[in-house]
Amino acid sequence: ISETMSTNEENKLPLNGRRAIPPNYSNDEENEVPEMEAFGVIPRGFNPRDYLRVVDIYMFKDPHEINKQEHHTDKYYNPRLIVRRGQAFQIQIDFNRPYKPQSDQFWLEFLMGRYPQQNKGTYIPVQVGNALKPGQWGAKIIHRENNSIRLSIMSSSTCIIGKFRLYVAVLTPFGILRTQRNSATDTYILFNPWCQLDAVYLDDEKEKQEYVLNDVGVLFHGNVEDVKSRSWSYGQFEENVLDACLFLMDKAELELSGRGNPIKICRVASAVINSRDDDGVIVGSWNNVYDYGVAPSAWTGSVDILLEYYSSKQPVRYGQCWVFAGVLNTFLRCLGIPARLITNYSSAHDNNANLRLDLFLDDEGKVDSKLTKDSVWNYHCWNEAWMTRPDLPVGFGGWQVVDATPQETSDGMYRCGPSSVQAIKHGHVCFQFDAPFVYAEVNGDVFYTRIEKNGTQVVESVDTARIGQLIVTKEVGGDGMMDITEEYKFREGSDEERLALETAVMYGVKKQSVQDTTYQPQTDVDMDFQAQKAALGNDFKVTITFRNKSRNSYTATTYLLGNIVFYTGVPKREFKKHSFSAKLEPSSSSSFDIVIKSSEYMSDVLEQASFHFFVTARINETGKILAVQKAVVLEIPTLRIKTKGALVAGKEASVIVEFTNPLKQTLENVTLRLEGPGVLRTIKKQFGRIPMNSTLTWEVKFTPMRPGLRRLIASLNSDALRHVYGELNVQIQKP
């Protein structure tokens, strides 16, 4: 019987000539894992009971226990362990006898799906070592007692997210012994906005509380003259919601190996939340007929919708934009991607993304509804998800538009995003995904075009201020409205706004003005941007240089915009705006210096002191635009570490950490950390404040454990200054 079983199983697999294994996109399916994996012929006298054997595994998975507390997952109504990637968690293993590190060898195995493979991240063997490396898989023993050991396990900060099965494997001379399949030890791994190495890292604690951990929200609707609001329950921690969200990725057929990438997850989620072309979660209906379903306005939250879909596997009826956005927000927050729901008032639904909404009038001036294909929505809801964009140039990380409402197809499916808000603001719509469509939603012009009896079109009026008049989201920590229009666009009528539009046109957004012009770049003027090397806390100079290669005199209206950014290129805030008119003499170069004062950036400077500058200049005589962008990083001071006396294993010694505050301000809430693998356990010390120019000295007594070359690592953290490090290699002598 077993033979026919296996051949049947083989026949079902949808193999083809290109793949060695079938596509692997179910988190739910499992493979058989052998409890005894023999290396060859097993001798007759072999008894697995003679070897180290796992009796029990304790996961510390209750909400009040260390793992869920430290990983901010204590709110999930789920009995299993839930941790966030790139951050250590603990488990305890009870063996049948005390563990002997010299002779016993065991490791952990995390598996996902039906075809676990190490190079796909779906089979993860974790060896036990003596130190954990940040953001990399590893385990170390932190406590041994009787037959038990306690392990600290670090997951990779790029690990795929979902539900893993855990096995403990013990090496014997004749084969590998594994624990039995035990669903109680299943471990969910999620995105980690608290981990600096994670692509979704968000630095502000209040924003994390709001955009990841808040399970209710406020939707803004109505119209721009009459804004209305209502609450929505996201419910991302409710029972079975996490499993439902993982099921959505299975349904969308996202390969398991792609599930560590928030860009991919957002892209497939924006498609699978709507039912068009993939039998996704919600059926959209805008025609006021809601037979055999629930009217979109009747839903109060996402949980019912997600759980109904999870159990029935059939699209749920019905939704409109805020329902798609509400459910997508639940999905993103549940998996640990910071997310918020956005309302754009007077949202353009522009069928051909030409930034021109044509409202056709008949000969008498009435709107002709048969001819008019474009529409202006009173409001439209979408989502923003927070992440880095390593696939785009620096400066385009941060909030990304993701829209699950089925409006237009993108790469053949109804989906939209992720699209960088920063790129939309500056008109850089060449960057994936779907930026021209979103740009048009917030930036179109309304053309009122009259069609005469003989068919000629006469533009009667153009309204440039109508579209995207107000863009809002719920405020952090309250139920009020936060106006974020300026995240998406420059002030209506400002020069920067016109410049962003011209940039968008240059990158292929079709903009039909009354006189159509074709794009020809300005080739006879070059513009360059340089920044002076400087230390954090000092003023520094940036220089814009024009080279006019022509025989004409030009004037250039020039704009400099400076953003404080995370080291990942995600902007935190705009801190410098400067505009000037530059006179460009024929056949000559002209340089213009702009001083960036420390007082302009110090209040908001980020730990890695990175800035991103955009410079755009319009040659007034030709209307052509020059653009350049540059990232600038300032020098950050370091810690000095020195040791006192001889360093001998087993003998007490001293290490001294020194730091001089170079800033023109007192550092508050200073915390120092010092550690050295194999030398000393992490020691933390808090100092109230360090006045400007004063030096802090911290002496630590320690006893090095093992001889050899070791490294001491120290860091300093304070309110105004972070990312301050020092290190010292030390040679520990034999006693």
UniProtKB/TrEMBL annotation:
Binds 1 Ca(2+) ion per subunit. Its main location: cytoplasm. PROSITE patterns: TRANSGLUTAMINASES. Its EC number is 2.3.2.13. Ca(2+) binds at residues 443, 445, 492, 497. Belongs to the transglutaminase superfamily. Transglutaminase family. This is Coagulation factor XIII A chain. It comes from Sterrhoptilus dennistouni. The gene is F13a1.
